[in-house]
Design goal:
The chain is built from eight helices and 13 strands. With about 230 residues, the protein is an alpha+beta fold. Helix 3 packs across helix 4 and helix 6 crosses helix 7.
Length: about 230
């Protein structure tokens, strides 16, 4: 019940409705570094991230992994019927031990028939994901590398941020992401990311106590810098 209430799709449902949904959304604990979806798994399913984090990526022709998105608690991805939640033809891998629920197309359709409002919410969430993808594609085509990285860090702060110092505006990113993963998401090389991040630190946009410590960011300053870039 606790996990179900955290899923964005079910957020807002009454306790009685969540009780009714519980048998249709069994939990599966998935170990870190497990592939849970790929283009070679033809089944159309919807995945609900009840806890943990999932990385969506695709493979280039040379076999290089290109990270497309990072999803946390409450997110959904996959494909049901003719609808896709922004993850068609992608690989999905857990980046930490996670609790994942899988819904088959028939199960999802049955839930939507009983709760039509969830169908509208699913469309809204899908549209929001597509908008984010379109924004990133536009940046990849016309934006500088600086602007792409500012955008990515801002988006990560919205998804995985935990406010640690309200007075100073710092938010800690509760997700481990390497310079290489940022590079693959921004369409550049790791060395460029390292150089840009060093510049962001000197500007007071981000901070980090050590290589292995979590990164903290200033979302408001990131947004303003992105608007100027």
């Amino acid at each position: 019940m606790k996990y179900l209430s955290r899923i964005q799709l079910f957020n807002g449902l009454e306790l009685e409705q969540l009780h009714h949904l519980e048998p249709h959304t069994p939990m599966n604990t998935v170990k870190r570094k497990t592939i849970i979806a790929s283009p070679y798994m033809p089944q159309k399913r919807l995945f609900l991230v009840k806890s943990g984090k999932v990385r969506l990526y695709k493979l280039s022709k040379s076999g290089k992994e290109l990270t497309v998105d990072l999803l946390g608690e409450g997110n959904i991805f996959g494909q049901v019927g003719s609808f896709t939640a922004g993850s068609q033809d992608l690989y999905a891998e857990t980046i930490e031990d996670s609790v994942i629920c899988t819904l088959e197309t028939a199960q999802f359709e049955a839930i939507i028939k009983e709760y039509p409002e969830l169908g509208l919410k699913f469309i809204e969430m899908t549209a929001s994901r597509l908008k984010e993808v379109e924004e990133m594609l536009e940046l990849m085509a016309y934006g500088s590398i600086r602007k792409r990285l500012l955008y990515l860090l801002y988006q990560l702060s919205q998804k995985f941020g935990r406010r640690t110092d309200p007075d100073q505006g710092w938010i800690q990113l509760e997700v481990k992401i390497t310079h290489q993963e940022l590079a693959s998401m921004a369409g550049c090389i790791r060395e460029t990311v390292s150089e840009q991040l060093s510049g962001f630190m000197s500007e007071g946009l981000i901070s980090r106590k050590g290589v292995r410590s979590p990164m903290s960011v200033q979302p408001e300053l990131l947004f303003m810098a992105m608007e100027r870039a």
